[in-house]
Design goal:
The chain has 8 helices and 16 strands. By secondary structure, it is of the alpha/beta class. The chain folds into 2 domains: about 140 residues, no CATH class; about 200 residues, Rossmann fold (3-Layer(aba) Sandwich). The strands form 4 sheets. Strands 6-5-4-7-15-16 form a 6-stranded mixed beta sheet, sandwiched between helices. Strands 8-9-10-11-12 form a 5-stranded antiparallel beta sheet. A 3-stranded antiparallel beta sheet has the order 1-2-3, covered by helices on one side. Helix 1 packs antiparallel against helix 2 and helix 3 runs antiparallel to helix 4. It is elongated. The protein starts with a helix and ends with a helix.
Length: about 425
Amino acid sequence: MKRFSRNRSRENERGQVVLLVAVCFTVMLLFMALAIDVGFAYVTKAKLSKSVDAACLTAMRNLAQGQTIARNLAINSFNGNYKVSGLDQVPPTVAISFTTDSYGQTLVNVNGAATIRTFFMRMLPNYQTFSVNDSAQATRGKLVMSVVLDRSGSMAGNGGSTALPPAVTTFINYFDNSNDEVAMISFASNATIDVPIGYNFITPITNAVNAMKIAGGTFGPGGLTNAKTQNDSVAVLPGQNTVKVVVYFTDGYVNTIQDKLSCSGTLTLCNYGEYDSGNWVDVFDPTSGTSLATYDGVSSWTPSNTCLKNVTKFTSAINGQLKSLNRTNVTADAQYRALQTATAMRTENPGMYIYSIGLGNSVDQAFLQQIANDPASSTYDPTQPVGQAVFASNCPSSQCSAELQQVFQTIAAKILLRLTQ
């Protein structure tokens, strides 16, 4: 009797173990099923998030073309990034809307949704599909930008005079004619504000760049100073997403500066420099850029009866000392003054981003990298706004115009990215 009872007890224990194993195995399978299906949902979520972000950025970058075009391009971007797979129950959906913030700046809102089939959880009636959602919002900040263009005489011989107008026209059309404020400055022996900073800039800048007269030296410091003045004239409201930018284009070395020189004893504002070799220095009217006189860098003026005939030195901005009036010293001062102005722009609040463009093979690439605070520069300062120097080296050539277009487009993309938050 006892033997029979013991055997029966063992059989009961075995039954309990089998039941326990069955329950545990079922629970384990459910957890595995959940893990697999959740894993697929996670992959879909990541893909959806990437697609939504891309659509948001695309819409923001193309706002200048109007909201309808921006929306269509954003939808194309979303569909291009989200590749429909066998997991999808139905194709994903995306909704794009545009609103404004308290400053009147455009907000892009993107909402995406995808529904996937489950593998194991579909055994449960309510879990045959799984919905994934993601959203993104970007603020299109206000752009305050001065475009600074070299119109020196060398532009006539290296293809720049032909390539520059269409490149600039394409470039400014990337930006919002109603909400951004843009100026155009040009420089040669003098520097001029051709289009004061403001809204509705596309047509005036297009006309101005096509009407530029190519001649004279390279008064780059003056162009940068004018750009700083134009950008500084636009006030930034507290909390407003505003990006200030200077785009500096040149095909050569800066070689002209501006000071008051003694003209028959009267201090008179003059621009002087122009040469890239030898000792010669030309003096120009700062308003018209007209040549007034030429100094040989040693002892002689032409014409000999100029009111400047007693001037043989100038005050260097580098150290405040008097230096001989010759091409080498003037060029060194021009570089120093341009770099000082660029640094002053970056250290303002908000600091300005500077992008520099060099055309042809006669540019000082190291100098343009310093102007932009490019990471490749020997004086790169990561605490200041980081710009970029880009070069169109194949000028003159049949590739010049296309290459310069691409360079300006590269910078436009960088600026548009900075405008997006």
